[in-house]
Amino acid sequence: MGSQALQILRQGVWASLTGGWYVDPHQSTFSNCFHLYLWIFLLAFPFLLLVVAGVYCAVIAAFFTAIKAVNFRLHAMFDLGEIVEKRRASFTTDPNRVEEGEEGSGAHDGNDGSDMSAGSSLGSQRRFSSDDEDDDEDDDSSSSTSCYSPDLANTGITSQPVPPHLPSPGEGEEPDTVGPSHSRSAQRSASTASAKTHARVLSMDGAGGGSNNTGTLASTMLPSLLSSAPAPRPLTISKSDLEARTVHSEGFSRAHHRLDSLGGSWAGNQTGWRAGELLEEGAVGGGEERTDSFLIIVFDLDHESPHESQENTLMIEEKAKPKQYYRFWVLPGKWLRVRYDRLALLALLDRNRRAGENVFSVVLASLVAFLGFLFVSIFKMWCCVCSVQPDAASPMHGHNWIIVYSRPVYFCLCCVLISVFDLVGHSDSMRPFTLYGVTFFSTHFLLCARDMLIVFTLCFPIIFLFGLLPQVNTFLMCLLEQVDMHIFGGTATTSPLSSVYSLLRSILVSALVYGFCLGAINAPWGEAHVPVLFSVFCGLLLALSYHLSRQSSDPTILWSPPLEIKDPLPEKLRNSVTLHSDLVMCPLMAIITFAISASTVFIALQPALSFVLYILAGVVGFTTHYLLPQLRKQLPWFCLAHPVLRSREYSQFEVRDAAQLMWFEKLYAWLQCVEKYLIYPAVVLNSLTTEAHTVMAGMKLLRTSFCVPSQQYVTLCFTALFFQFDYPRFSQTFLLDYYCMSILFSKLWDLLYKLRFVLTYIAPWQITWGSAFHAFAQPFAVPHSAMLFVQAVFSALFSTPLNPVLGSAVFVTSYTRPVKFWERDYNTKRVDHSNTRLATQLDRNPGADDNNLNSIFYEHLTRSLQHSLCGDLLLGRWGNYSTGDCFILASDYLNALVHIIEIGNGLVTFQLRGLEFRGTYCQQREVEAITEGVEEDEGCCCCEPGHLPHTLSFNAAFGQRWLAWEVAATKYVLEGYSISDNNAASMLQVFDLRKILITYYVKSIIYYVTRSPKLEEWLANETVQEALRPCLSPSYVDSDPTFNLNIDEDYDHRASGITTSSFCLVYLEWIKYCNSRRQTPVESEKDSPLVTLCFGLCILGRRALGTASHSMSASLEPFLYGLHALFKGDFRITSPRDEWVFADMDLLNRVVAPGVRMSLKLHQDHFTSPDEYEDPVVLYDAITANEEKMLISHEGDPVWRSAILANMPSLLALRHVMDDGSDEYKIIMLNKRFLSFRVIKVNRECVRGLWAGQQQELVFLRNRNPERGSIQNAKQALRNMINSSCDQPIGYPIYVSPLTTSFAGAHVQLRSVWGGPISPHNIYTWFISSWDRLQKGCGAGCNSGGNIEDSDCGGGSTSISNNPAAHPPQNTASSIPQPHPTTVQPLMGKTHASLPLPLALLSQSEGRMDAGLVSSLHRTSSIHGLLGQHLSSSQLSFSSSVALPPADRFCPSSLQDNPSHRASQRGLSLGQGSGLPYEALYSKWSLPGRKGFNGPAVMEGDGSASQSIRTQVRTHAYITVFPLDLLIHKIS
Fold first, then answer.
1. Which residues contact 137 (CB under 8 A, 6 or more apart)?
2. What is the DSSP string of 13-53?
3. Are 274 and 160 in contact (CB under 8 A)?
4. 3-state SS class at 10
5. Structure confidence at residue 770 (pLDDT)
6. Would the pLDDT of 1203 be above 50?
7. Among the listed residues 182, 172, 168, the one whose alpha carbon sits nearest the alpha carbon of residue 29
């Protein structure tokens, strides 16, 4: 804790005050000295050239240009340069020799300063020169470091030497072992002045010849080491030293024994050496070959004590480091040798990767020098050399290159503003104006603003210390977002680019409208006359404001890239985007507004009209946004125990269908519609008629009322009452008053939420101390309450979070953040087989943890919310909402935080953050707090007198008011998956259960063999026949050890294996039945090729299971391990007898692999119906049904994710869980159903404050304690759940969605209330359908035997279904010519691996009918009758869950998802019989008023590809589809 506090003081406080300079003990002496001298130069140089500012700027520019250029070139050299190595080396005593380059073009080297050697930068290394015959440069052949430690001296163990190029421990990390001294290695401190250390180095070449591996003497003498005073004693060379260096093989063995005596200490240090070598190789571009050598380091610890002569010798075996250097090209043909690694250079200077960054840094430094105020400017220029990392305002761990430019940019901006204010303040060009008694832009105002900016600039060190200013891109985004929202009425933005786009869009529209407004103002006005130009201005203002309110701030959603799977939702969302509707609505609204404005109604009815509109807006707003939401809350007014207006699902224990549309939801939607499109436009237009110059105010109020009308009635009523009755003399015109009050009220709402959060969080009766610091800080926070209130006002004014320090009761203001809050776009990337290596999938899949696998459910929940959230908000199912609100969705196992970021007119952009399923103890306590009811509480203070019926007790009502959250809804219905997991060990514990699984495994293999369309090909394959020929012998026995009497039902104990006879005795009946279900059966007798193939595949499958189980299938754990390996597709064919399967890999992929998975499902069903599957018919139908309706796959397979996102009805998987020491297997079963959630609305300032506190604590204060007090549970604020939802690694959510936009047009129930969008296509469709209905009605009226309903439903379809006897089956196929028949047959054995998604998710072995058949069914009404006669012979039936569309509408673009309207599953057919069921993928057809196929057309939709066209054809049936033209010709 002490070292951490010292590090914060050094890198946080001191670095912020100095602008970034501090002494880092982890860096070399050279780096610290360079930083110190550079900082002194930048500090003192302005005093030398105080008068000549131009020279100062020029020198600074030249200086920074040189530094950046050299730094850029050095990094380019490390990236692209070539490493030069020297392998032959000997030591010499002349370190100052100079040589030419290898090619005669080198530069001088040595101590002249041109060699950037590692020895001069790391300080703890020694250099020795080599005397190669072609290069006599001094190179590092070997080096050592002696570092004295009194503790180690007492134990006789010395610290290890550091390799020459080994970088020092990384920034921010403490060294694990005693590291080298950062001064010269012989330097000693005062505490160790009595110790004398001698180092003797001997290098032996391990590559030398000789049987006894002896080496030669490689060094003779070490040079004297330079150090600062007091000078160390130089190493002496004596006879004993020379004798110590003469080492042979016996000496090595003796030293090796001494090395072994060190035990575990040596082992740990050796690991550190190896890690250091790898780190160095990565730093210098290693990977080259290295020769082995032995390095012996002998330490003589001479103490002034009786043990002064004690000697400790340590021999270290290490790879010899070749001499390496880079060539730094100065001029063509001239280069310098650089012995410097990248890590040391990064510690010395910040890296700029692109040339533009270097130019920008030089320009910033020059601007700072030009605009600077001496000391303060020095701090800003230093950031361009070596920045403060991490900064107090940095949102991320590690090096943040953006934060580097924050200080100089802010400094230049403030200096420019100071200069502008000073220049304008001393001139008379600016005309002041007065607003509410305050004079703006007067001389005194501008000079005061200048002085405040000067003081603000001088306080930069303190401001940056507390992190009150964000990084540059965040500041730009916040500034533009606030301007767009408060000045132009825009919505929140999602990125800096979207903020620029939104503001430019608003400015462009304002400029366009203001031109018409200016022309209208200059035109002559009569007392009862409105100029035409002004009416045009009003129409354009309303239409363009409506259009802007319906557009997202991020235009990229219009051209979002296609997803990985075929999914109808993105196309549906793009179709619901409002561009097409606006093409009709905007001109229509402009024309209507023009007509109303030109009628002078707003002039003729004054002043009564204004008061009527104010009263109407107040009454409708109060009813819509206060009364109805309160009556629908779980605890209305925190007094009643139950909602007054309840949904139909409120009393249901388990929700089984989509939420029903209630009358009060329709009322809420229509009141909003009236409020947005009638009342507030009338209020604005009424005020604009007399106040036309306030164009921006009108646009802002119109856009705000269109997007978020929930709080407008409060602002409107206050403005009318305050300025009309209380203080009319301060009124500046109503529209301007309303405009200013809307900005003020938005800040007051923020202040109210902050004060509620603070008071709730620090309330003494519910404070939760997570640590000792919390208990210490609680009493100290009481005297600072006034300061806390000032901070709250300041933070509300600048939209900054108010965060608790380390989770305590002490609050500080953070830097401003956008509504989105998080600066970087973080979202979860699922780990599966598509983005991991095959080796990791087979051994230990890194994505096989619960959190990664469970994240898919939050992704599916995001998709469900994307489909329905906007409509549900407009129906009032989440209560009142506004921009930035946060909600928690809580279910049995799903707990997600939904952050609403942008609210438009018909769109909502949100982000979902999913928490762990099995959360921590603190999370479980908070989940209990939000899910438990308070209706049973009967307490009142210290007694329990009870409470009135359907009301809360006093204690419950009081406690609910002191929470930072409230329950908005208890039965919010969403489509999702119910998850059930069963322990596989308990289901396979006994041998009988494993025998059942193996039996189903064999039967599933037989099923897939017989269903495969390649069966005939396999039976005719010579390789397969040759391999299986031995199985035909009556005496053939497979005695593999993997077969066991306990688990194999066909095991022959007399033959000690499995024979053909024993196999046929058990499975021959099943083979024959499966073969009989084929369309073209093959021979299936005992000695037939089919039985032999089934026998071979079943033996192979069981042997593969035994191999994966390590031939220990009799034990449970190995059996489960092998079953899981086969389930995920890891088949190890190790027996030569099974290699015939490689003749066609479909034998494994299409037969054995799905057989393993299907057997697990059948084993699950066996517990509910143990005897039903004895019947082959039932078993065959069960497998076929599972193939159609369920996906059985490993969770790491990408098809698993695709199936869930495509709304597959059921899924099954086998999961291997290895978390927290547990090693278990679970069978995961998913069933699609409707889930019920509790919707908890959380104080948004509570969420922002806790998020900001976590970011400051973990990034800046570096608190890495996993049990820190700030994440302990606090039920009143849900502290643990909110903090754990932060972006990783600050929080630990298992899923964070990208920013997702939901559109109101995708909500079916809302469209049934408001109607669909009015687009050109819909208008055209309405006209065409109306004309068709009129034409058919007239035609039916002219016929005596017809009626409108019959012709409306498509001719004879009604009569066919109602009176089948009138159309007896006729065999007309022989009389109709058949030039091009199309035969539809089932695709036997097709698995999902071979089919495109999403068809592969639906069925692995089902046939599919061509959509052309259904298209042809609707050409004419007479074709219906004919095809009904032709296909009525028990071959074709249609499900009532789909209304068949006209042929011109049968296209993928018309696919719609309708999860809320599910059709009854009654069997409606064209004939009698149900041999060919048909279900449609196309889930929504808008055919209003039509009837067909026995009843009204209903809209069906699972919202998924799971309802695709499915066809089942019996083995004897097939369908021949004739060309439509021939049918028409035949009829005529």
1. 97, 99, 106, 109, 129, 130, 337
2. IIHHHHTS----TTS-HHHHHHHHHHHHHHHHHHHHTSS-H
3. no
4. helix
5. 78
6. yes
7. 182
Q: Are residues 1182 and 1173 in contact, defined by beta-carbon separation less than 8 angstroms? A: yes
pLDDT confidence of residue 84:
79
Distance from C-alpha of 1503 to C-alpha of 1483, rounded to nearest angstrom: 7
**Taking a C-beta distance cutoff of 8 angstroms, is the pair 486, 743 a contact?**
yes
- pLDDT of residue 1241 exceeding 70, the answer is yes
Indicate whether 133 pLDDT > 50: no
Tell me if 950 sits within 8 A of 642, measured CB to CB.
yes
Distance, CA of 77 to CA of 346 (rounded, Å): 14
Closest CA to 1190 of 1146, 1160, 1152: 1160
Position 1342, amino acid: C
What value does the mean pLDDT of the chain take?
Answer: 73
Residue 845: how many CB atoms within 10 A of its CB? 21
Phi-psi region of 398 (alpha: psi -120 to 50; beta: other; left: phi over 0): left
Strand 886-890 and strand 1058-1059: the pairing is unpaired
Q: What is the pLDDT of residues 106-130, one digit of tens each?
A: 433 333 333 433 333 333 333 333 3
CB neighbour burial string for 566-588, b if at least 16 within 10 angstroms, e if fewer:
bbbbebbbebbbbebbbeebbee
Contacts of 738 (CB under 8 A, 6+ apart): 687, 697, 701, 715, 716, 719
- The phi-psi region of residue 816 (left if phi > 0; otherwise alpha if psi is between -120 and 50; otherwise beta) is beta
Taken in order 1386, 1389, 1394, 1396, the sign of the CA dihedral is positive
Confidence of residue 1455 (pLDDT cuts 50, 70, 90): very low
Distance CA 689, CA 531 (A): 10
Q: Give the Cα separation of 431 and 847 in Å (integer).
A: 66
String of b and e for 279-293 (b: at least 16 CB within 10 Å)? bbeebbbbeeebeeb
Beta bridge partners of 202: 296
Q: Could you tell me the pTM of the whole model?
A: 0.73
Backbone angles phi, psi at 795, to 5 degrees: -70, -35
To which residue do tokens 């088949």 refer?
Answer: 1131
Alpha carbon 841 to its chain's center: 23
Say how far apart CA 568 and CA 1457 lie, in whole Å. 8
Give the C-alpha separation, 1028 to 1138, whole Å.
10
851: its two tokens:
């959190």
Which alpha helices (H) appear in 488-632, and where do they start and end? 496-522, 532-549, 568-576, 579-598, 601-604, 608-622, 628-632
Going by C-beta distance under 8 Å and a sequence separation of 6 or more, which residues neighbour residue 210?
A: none
Q: What is the pLDDT of residues 330-340, one digit of tens each?
A: 888 788 888 87
Task: Give the confidence band of 1355 by pLDDT, cuts at 50, 70, 90.
Answer: very low
Kindly give, in sequence order, each residue whose CB lies less than 8 Å from that of residue 1336, ignoring residues fewer than 6 positions away. 1348, 1351, 1352
pLDDT digits (tens, 9 = 90+) for 968-1008: 999 999 999 999 888 999 889 889 999 999 999 999 999 99
**Percent of the chain residues past pLDDT 90, beyond the cut:** 32
pLDDT at 300 over 80: no
pLDDT of residue 482: 94
Residue-wise pLDDT for 658-687, tens only, equals 999 999 999 999 999 999 999 999 999 998
Nearest of 1232, 1222, 1272, 1235 to residue 1250 by alpha carbon? 1272
Identify residue 1262 by its one-letter amino acid code: R
> Would residue 576 be called left, alpha or beta, if left means φ above 0 and alpha means ψ between -120 and 50 degrees?
alpha
Domains of the chain, residue spans: 2-79+353-464, 84-186+193-222+235-345, 984-1188, 1353-1531
pLDDT tens per residue across span 64-110: 888 888 888 888 888 887 777 765 544 333 433 333 333 333 433 33
To the nearest 10 degrees (0 to 180), the angle between helices 1176-1189 and 1153-1166 is 110
